Amino acid sequence: MTPGKFITLEGIDGAGKSTHLRWLEKELRSRGKTIIVTREPGGTPLGEALRELLLDDNGTMHAETEALLMFAARREHLDKVILPALARGDWVISDRFTDASFAYQGGGRGLAMQKLDSLEQWVQGEFQPDLTLYFDVMVEVGRQRINAIKPPDRFEKEQDAFFRQVRDAYLERAHKFPRRIVVIDANQPLEEVKESLDKIISSICIC
Ligand SMILES: Nc1ncnc2c1ncn2[C@@H]1O[C@H](COP(=O)(O)OP(=O)(O)O)[C@@H](O)[C@H]1O
Ligand SMILES: Cc1cn([C@H]2C[C@H](O)[C@@H](COP(=O)(O)OP(=O)(O)O)O2)c(=O)[nH]c1=O
What we know:
By secondary structure, the protein is an alpha/beta fold. The chain has one domain: Rossmann fold (3-Layer(aba) Sandwich). Helix content is 56%, strand content 13%. The chain is built from eight helices and five strands; from the N terminus they run E-H-E-H-H-E-H-H-E-H-H-E-H. The two termini are 14 Å apart. Bound molecules: adenosine-5'-diphosphate (ADP) and thymidine-5'-diphosphate. Adenosine-5'-diphosphate (ADP) binds at residues 11, 13-19, 145-146, 149, 186, 188-190, 193.
């Protein structure tokens, strides 16, 4: 059996991950892959319950509590969804994974990256996505897009300065892991982003 692949999509809120995830799913299915689409925080009943607590727009919590809950949800997600699917030979596409913790809790909230390194090591050891698509968008552009669709959750209510730190942390991760993380200019119109994505998928020949 061909081993499955694990693809993650990342970006600040409003970058276009969810939109392109649907396209990517269709594209890979048309190439005969069995695709499991999932998300973080979430992806399991317990993870979805944690997601509600984490995104609740009235909730307040310590930044370390936030990081621990993200990794707790991830531990469950790996155990119940991601690892079993990959073992079956399925492909898994996740709307966010651990890079989001480094970007939001590390960059945005200012938690020490070493603490996040320890949690990462504890929860997933050396396991990493095969490919991460990072949709890079200017903070103002992302903000305009999310404002147009729904009331903001607890993260989306953060100021632009927070999102600049999140974006910088994502770019640092992309610089640190250039073979795994591909940066896509998501400021472009939808069709152009889709074309870039199409080229990346074909050129890296993940099928
Ligand atoms: N490149 C783009 N140009 C214009 N609008 C976009 C683009 N990408 C996404 N959008 C729109 O922005 C909104 C947020 O996109 P979404 O995919 O939900 O973002 P994310 O999942 O990254 O938060 C949606 O209404 C979507 O149609
Ligand atoms: C996975 C993960 C997400 N998050 C945040 C980023 C997002 O603002 C939020 C999840 O929302 P998101 O996936 O963007 O969902 P939606 O498109 O429905 O708003 O959780 C973290 O802060 N750390 C993490 O480790």
